[in-house]
Structure formats: structure tokens, C-alpha cells
Amino acid sequence: MAQTKTKPFHAFWLFFPAAALWAAVVVPLSIYAVLSGSGWPPGLLGAGHGHELIFGFALALIAGYTLGPQPWRVLAPLFVLWLVARLCWTLAPESPISQLLSPAFALLLARYAVPRFQAAKKWRNKIAGPLILVLCLLSVAFWITANAPAGFWLALPDTRRVMTAAILGLLLLMTFMGGRMIAPAVAGTLEKRGIPLEARVQPRIEGTLLVILLAAMVLVLIPRADIVTGLALVLSAILILIRALRWKLWHCMNRPDLLVLGIGYVWLAAGAGTTGVYLLQGNNPLPALHVITIGALGTLSISVMLRLAWQRARRTFPPTWQVLAIAVAMAVAVLARLQAGATPFAHPGLLWLSTLCWSTAYGLVAIQLATLFRASQQRRK
After folding, report:
1. What is the pTM (predicted TM-score) of this model?
2. Mind spelling out the 3-state secondary structure of 214-234?
3. Any transmembrane segments, and where (predicted)?
4. What is the pLDDT of residue 123?
5. Can you tell me whether residue 319 is helix, strand or coil?
6. How much of the chain exceeds pLDDT 90, in percent?
7. What DSSP assignment string belongs to 139-188?
8. Which of 140, 197, 269, 296 could form a disulfide with 241 if both were Cys (CB 3.0 to 4.6 A apart)?
9. pLDDT at position 7, please?
């Protein structure tokens, strides 16, 4: 008898719920570890909190969004490696095995995700692959900087700057992929209403943003380049906002899912601009970076997860109440965290408010994704 081949499985059904659950759990546990005085779990103290949200949560999002349908011989090892890396880092971050597992997952993800973008001809279309590779390599850079002996390499940036570069990399990736998702969707919606949209991808603005934000990623690793980095980020914020305004999103009131995607895109401008201003003023950019990681990443990631899941399972767009709730929850979360400032644990009330909004949103999204997955499986039967 001929062997039957197993059908490829969509990576987002596996990685999106896992990423949502991890996002919901990591933040409250990291705050508990500090405020309780227990120091548990140790992997979420200090830089560990950011490590898991960038190299754990965000890379899982990238895996779900970019891998597409894959055979289980690819997905199973990749997912197991991600899961084991998360648990090991959380419980025993100082262990050599724990520190090696995250870079191993990042490199394996790059092995499968990056080649999917190489067929494009224009350099702007090819940038997603190399950018994902850079984000994955920054996980390796974090491991190197965290374990390098004192004085090993005078030019080696510290882990804080590596993580900041990774956040700016996420900013660039969301700017690029968000634009490629929003522009055609808005154009199609407006055409149905007889409203022409001339400014779609806006290649000149997109190309300029790619160059400026790539430069900012490199410059932020250099301690004496904060002023130049700040200027680059402020300029990029202006360009992102101009690009969003030219999409005429106010004509899409009948598509709240697109409006919320647009709000997430505007958060990119707010995050880039706020971070740039902090750097220009010589202040710690940590609060401003949360405008990117909560406002932009939170709004865009949940919007994309729900959008893909609803289209796959129900062939429709997410309900209005869900997308609007996302927008409100992430707005409250980012504003509360921004108000907590550079010494957030001195303002536990604001921290817990931000965490409540963030974790509730991602927890409910994880449940929604599981429900939609069951619906999609029943639809196939």
C-alpha cells in the first residue's frame, strides 16, 4: 500500500496560541518576582523579562506569521525547542543549557523562515528575510554579551543595548510588514466604496524608513551615538505617521479591524518618536520603548492573530467588539506603563494596571484561537 503523506499544518495555529499564553504569563510573573521579594521565577528578573518578550514571545509571533504551512517534521522540533527554551530560561537562566537553547531556537527559525523571502526581486521586498535573520542573530549576540568576561572586548555592547536594538528591529519589521498588510486591505475596501487610493505601499517612504531604521539599529549599539539615533527615530516617526495618514483610514469606519490595525501602525510612530525624544534628552529610553512593545506590538500582533484565525476558521473578519477591546486594552496598558516611568516598581499600582490589561487581552485571545482552531477542524470534516 502506498504511504499517505501528512498534510502540512499552518504554523500560526501552533505558535500564535503559545505566544499569546506566554505573553499573558510572563509579565505578571516578572512583576511578582520583584514585588514579592521571592525572586521567583529567576529567569524573569531584570533583563530576563525583556529577553522573554523579545526572544521568546516576539520570535514565536514571527514563526507563526512567516512559516506558513509546514510538515510536522519541521514544526514539531521547532516548537519543542521553543517551549523547552522558555521553561529552562524561566527556571534556571544561569544554566549553560538554558542560555544556549534560545539562540538555538532563533537560528533554527531563521533556517526555515528566511529562505521564504528570497524569491523577491526588488531589494525592499527582500528585506524581510535578512531582517528576521538579524533579529534571530541578536539572540546569539545577547548570549555572547551576557557571557563575555569583563574587558573581553571593549567595543562589545551591553545586553541592554542589544535588547534595544532588537526592539528597534521589531519596530522596523512591523513597519514593513504592517504596511504591506494594511495598504492593500485599505485600498480594496475603499475601491468598493468608489474612493480611489493613490498612496498604497508608498515605496519612497518605505525605502527611506528601511534605511533610517536599519541605521538606528546599528547606532543604538554605540554608546556615544544616542543623539544621532534619537534624530533618526524622530524622523522615522514623522514618516510613519505621514504614511498612515495617506491611507485615509477614516474612510474605513465599516471595517473596525482595519481601523485597529491602523491604530497599531500609529503606535509605531508614537513609539519611535517618544524613544527618539528620550534619547535626545539623554534620558533612559526604557519607558518609551514600551510604547513600541506594548502599544504597537500588542495592538498589531493581536489584530493579526485574530484576523488570520477568523479568516481561516470562519472566512470573515474579527467581531467589532473584539478589535475595539484590543485597542482600548493596549492603550490603557501602554499609558499606564509610560506613566510608571524609568523606576516602574516604585509605582506598583500603575504596573499592575498595565499588566492586567496586557495579560487579560492575550489570555482571552489564546482562548479565542483555540475555539477557532476547533471550528476550522470541524469545517474540514
Report:
1. 0.95
2. HHHHHHCCCHHHHHHHHHHHH
3. 12-35, 47-67, 74-92, 98-115, 127-156, 162-183, 204-222, 228-246, 258-280, 286-309, 321-338, 350-373
4. 72
5. coil
6. 87
7. HHHHHHHHHSPTTS-TTPPPHHHHHHHHHHHHHHHHHHHHHHHHHHHHHH
8. 269
9. 82
